[in-house]
Amino acid sequence: MNKPSPEQERLRQLRDRQLRARDPMTKQHRLERTIAQRHRRAQEPFSMVRIWSEIPHKWKGVFYGLVGGALLLVVLPMFWSSPWATLLPIILIPFFVFLGFLFGRAADVRDELNDLMR
After folding, report:
1. Predicted pLDDT at 27
2. Which value, to the nearest 10 degrees, does the dihedral of the CA atoms of residues 105, 107, 111, 112 take?
3. Nearest-10 Cα torsion for 34, 36, 38, 42
4. What is the pLDDT, as a whole number, of residue 59?
5. First-last CA distance in the chain
6. pLDDT tens, 103-114?
7. pLDDT-based confidence at 3, cuts 50/70/90?
8. How far apart are CA 72 and CA 50, in angstroms?
9. Taking the model in full, what pTM does it have?
10. How far is CA 62 from the centre of its chain?
11. Which residues, in sequence order, are CB contacts of 62 under 8 Å at separation 6+?
12. pLDDT at position 65, please?
């Protein structure tokens, strides 16, 4: 069998590429692919786990800090009978929220660096 010369192969590929570029159905195929992807995405079941995993860590940290401060506000007066037992957690809630934000931001930066290293 005759092997085509590199020049003939290059011309054949060029011709194929030009035909594909002029194909009127290219835009239609792209549109159909986009519609199919959206349809598949819409058919996925609703998942709270997936939604929670898409929230940035900094906002999760704020939530954890708020919950920790609120938990301290409820639990501390049970063990310490003092007027400071309710005032101290109220003062500490913004600190816990800020601390949670910082830890969450650090986790986000770590994830971004890991993504860049790939």
Report:
1. 77
2. 20
3. 180
4. 93
5. 45
6. 999 999 999 999
7. confident
8. 29
9. 0.58
10. 17
11. 97, 100, 101, 104
12. 93
